[in-house]
Design a protein that fits this description.
370 residues, alpha+beta, five-stranded antiparallel sheet, three-stranded antiparallel sheet, 13 strands
């Protein structure tokens, strides 16, 4: 079995897959970006050691948000920025999951359905914080559209503050308790289906071959899954958790075992079997199909901030919270180059020669083929 990454699979099977399937432009652009990432096609530069003359060629990244190779540094910087906003309070993890019956509708109406998911979940948390605690809470919601087997599984991971602001005071929630799960589930279900019905009435949904009234009746009769974890054990664990769920794509390269005879094998966790680690083997075309299920619409924002953490009022609200909680003023963020960031985060110094440890200087640019 030959070791492989997503890019290797796309290069080997992508052309035949594109010939056999009519793909939207977003999918074609994503496949092309991943196939050409860090290759001569995108150009690059040559660094030369000022001491020994050692040459190093570095090709440019595609920077596509679905590329497994292009998210690490961006994720680390985002997590660091959010870390400076953490308060000395409890944080809760809440997951809002859509029923499987909605998957076909969601795939045909990704932007509309995913926006409704964000809206219903945010209003659920906002309303409950206001009515049960009398506060304005803050939370971050991150969209996931996949399960471990790469099939469609839309859900939101939310990091929710254990308390909030109320008339110039900070009010904390109970130590091991945010809101009742059943209350969250039913409120979320009602809001989501109300927004979905309104979108259907406005003809914003493609409901080809579906009996929408029958679908609604079944969804109203079903208990929806809302998962709530106990509070994290300290702000540091919040950071570690955020790093796992912010800039991830459907599958990371390290989970791919290899490629052989047109089949792709990858590791996955079977939650239905005691979270056992297993290996799944798929035909390469099916692997690509499942990967492309999770390519988001152009311009769609998958990480959103609400309440105290909303972009419009975040700075003022956090300053008020820090004052009420007796925190020191946050230190100003120092600007740095990507080389400095990489060195600080990973210890890798790309300006140092791997042969003699001299300084690597830029020698030439390569712009790729015309």
């Amino acid at each position: 079995m030959v070791s492989a990454e997503v890019a290797d699979i796309f290069r080997a099977v992508g052309p035949s897959y594109r010939n056999a399937h009519k793909l939207p432009l977003t999918h074609l652009r994503t496949m092309h970006a991943i196939e050409t990432c860090r290759t001569a096609y995108l150009g690059g530069h040559v660094d030369e050691c000022e001491e020994c003359g050692h040459l190093r060629i570095s090709y440019n990244s595609c920077r596509n948000r679905h590329c497994p190779k292009c998210q690490f540094l961006k994720k680390e910087k985002w997590v660091e920025a959010r870390g400076k906003e953490l308060l000395p309070i409890e944080y809760f993890h809440v997951v809002f999951t859509l029923p499987d019956e909605l998957n076909p509708l969601a795939l045909r109406n990704r932007k509309v359905v995913y926006n409704i998911l964000f809206k219903a979940a945010s209003e659920t948390l906002t309303d409950l914080a206001s009515k049960r605690l009398g506060v304005q809470a803050g939370f971050i919601a991150v969209l996931h559209t996949w399960g471990q087997n790469l099939m469609d599984h839309p859900h939101l991971h939310c990091i929710v503050s254990g308390g909030g602001l109320s008339q110039g005071k900070w009010i904390s929630s109970k130590r091991r308790f945010l809101f009742p799960v059943r209350v969250m589930s039913r409120l979320f279900r009602g809001k989501f289906l109300a927004f979905l019905t309104k979108a259907c009435e406005k003809k914003e949904l493609q409901c080809v071959g579906e009996d929408f009234p029958s679908l609604l009746r079944g969804l109203y009769a079903k208990e929806w899954v809302v998962y709530a974890k106990p509070p994290f054990n300290g702000p540091e664990n919040v950071l570690r958790y955020l790093g796992r769920y912010t800039h991830r794509i459907a599958i990371t390269n390290h989970r791919i075992v290899g490629m052989e005879d047109g089949n792709i094998s990858f590791r996955w966790k079977d939650y239905a079997d005691g979270n056992k680690q297993k290996v799944m083997t798929l035909d390469s075309s099916e692997f690509i199909r499942r990967f492309l299920l999770h390519v988001l619409p152009d311009g769609f924002v998958k990480i959103r901030h609400f309440g105290l953490l909303s972009n419009r009022h975040r700075k003022e609200c956090l300053e008020a919270c820090r004052m009420l909680l007796g925190m020191k003023e946050a230190a100003p963020v120092r600007s740095e180059t990507w080389q400095e960031s990489l060195l600080r985060i990973t210890g890798i110094d790309v300006t140092r020669c791997p042969v003699c440890e001299g300084r690597m200087g830029r020698k030439d640019l390569y712009r790729g083929p015309p």
